[in-house]
Design brief:
Elements lengths: L1 E2 L2 H20 L14 H4 L2 H32 L2 E12 L1 E8 L5 H16 L5 E7 L3 E8 L2 H20 L2 H4 L5 H12 L6 H4 E2 L2 H9 L10 E8 L4 E2 L6 H10 L2 E7 L5 H13 L3 E4 L5 H12 L2 E12 L2 H21 L2
Length: 342
């Protein structure tokens, strides 16, 4: 243990020693009061002598505790501390939640969003982005560590999916206004079905490729992850790229793709999705095999990456021990004080 201000401690000790020397050198003469004659009879009494000795021992103990308490106070004023080396580790993940927003994937999207709201609250240093696609892709939020904003986007997506699943029920039942119903349903539909008559829908390859380009500064040493939610039921008429090309592009840029298939995914679509993703270094999960929470936890474990940050030497105050000792000393002084009835 060290102290921040040792000079203070030294000065206080010197002042105290100087004071004690002055007190000791002072003559103890009677200055006032009345002397009592013939006290030698009382002083020879064994009971009286016993009481005097007990009193003197208590007085010595009180003086010792006072001196000790003053010393402890001096230590506290000097601020005792310990040196601790703290290594700061920084999370270096970029996560893009890439959701097929066609109606056949609503249930999976809803589960993902619900669980990711809990995941986002535990993030520290990671950047998070949300992208939805059908015919075309829409970035709802670029990579950011503004988790409050990300949570607000996830809540909007959740409301939009719930209202789209329930249709007009919530509006007709009076739970929400027509303006709210329109806003939230359009929130997940607007921009995702541009030129659907010409291009088709659920264009998986384009959706994944657009999520790849959400990442910036690819030269930086960061773990990059795409979580792709889809049923791989592609109705694209004029896709820009295929799922296989998009997965290969992700691999070439060092991006890890985790794909999650819906409960109702067709067997041939599932086999194709799993084969393409795993061939390019990613991992496939079926919503049938385990629940979404387990899948997300698994992704968290397998993709966690930390950068070694700088090491800082910190001086941490440790007043607890001297303060506890001072407290005990004060309690003892109070008890001894009551003993001699001062």
């Amino acid at each position: 243990m060290e102290v921040r201000y040792p000079i203070l401690l030294i000065l206080l000790i010197i002042v105290f020693i100087f004071y004690m020397v002055l007190i000791k050198g002072k003559k103890k003469n009677y200055e006032s009061g009345t002397k009592i004659a013939n006290t030698h009879y009382l002083k020879r009494n064994s009971r009286f002598q016993k009481k005097i000795k007990s009193y003197q021992r208590i007085i010595i103990a009180i003086k010792s505790l006072c001196i000790f308490s003053i010393f402890i106070c001096s230590v506290l004023i000097s601020r005792p501390y310990k040196v601790k080396k703290v290594e700061f580790k920084e999370a270096n993940r970029d996560i893009v939640l890439c959701m097929d927003i066609s109606s056949s994937v609503y249930e999976l999207d809803k589960d993902l969003v619900t669980h990711f709201k809990n995941t986002v609250t535990s993030l520290k240093g990671e950047r998070f982005a949300i992208s939805i696609f059908n015919t075309t892709s829409v970035t709802l939020t670029p990579l950011t560590d503004d988790y409050e904003y990300v949570l607000s986007i996830l809540e909007n997506v959740e409301k939009g999916i719930n209202l789209s699943v329930n249709g007009m029920k919530d509006y007709t039942s009076g739970n929400i206004s027509y303006a709210e119903y329109t806003y939230y349903t359009q929130y997940i539909e607007q921009g995702t079905v541009e030129n659907a008559d010409e291009r088709g829908s659920s264009i998986i390859g384009d959706g994944l490729a657009s999520c790849i380009y959400n990442f910036s500064n690819l030269e930086e040493d960061r773990t990059r992850i795409i979580i792709l939610a889809t049923d791989n039921d592609d109705y694209g008429k004029k896709p820009i790229t295929s799922l296989e090309n998009a997965a290969s592009l992700a691999k070439s840029k060092g991006i890890l793709v985790f794909a999650i298939g819906t409960k109702g995914i067709k067997e041939n679509h599932e086999n194709s999705l799993k084969s393409i993703i795993e061939k390019n270094g990613g991992k496939y999960y079926s919503e049938n095999s385990s629940n979404i929470e387990d899948i997300i936890n698994n992704i968290e474990k397998t993709s966690k990456s930390l950068l070694d940050g700088k090491v800082e030497t910190k001086k941490i105050d440790i007043p607890e021990i001297p303060f506890t000792v001072l407290l005990i000393s004060t309690i003892l002084l109070i008890l001894l004080n009551q003993k001699v009835n001062l």
